[in-house]
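seq as requested:
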Amino acid sequence: MASSKAILALPVPKFSETAAEQGCAVCGQRFQEGDKVRMMPCSHSFHQSCIFKRLLGNRVCPCCRFTMPAADEQDDDMSKKRRRSCTPGSYVG
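struct tokens:
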């Protein structure tokens, strides 16, 4: 499962005719103006609902196998940041 923070951070690309012709590799439908679309870091675009559902179960791009951060990796990073910010004597209680 991909990190929910990474999934929500996927950018929303501007609609273009070229992207519309390519369409969504998850559902196979062409993009239409007004569709909610998200772009992965590898530059592949998908319907927002299609890629969100896919990334909750499988964290790789269906086109090129680019790997998104795992949910547990994201949690580990947050824990490390919290531990680093807690230096001795910094506690105010």
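The domain at 4-76 is CATH 3.30.40.10 (Herpes Virus-1).
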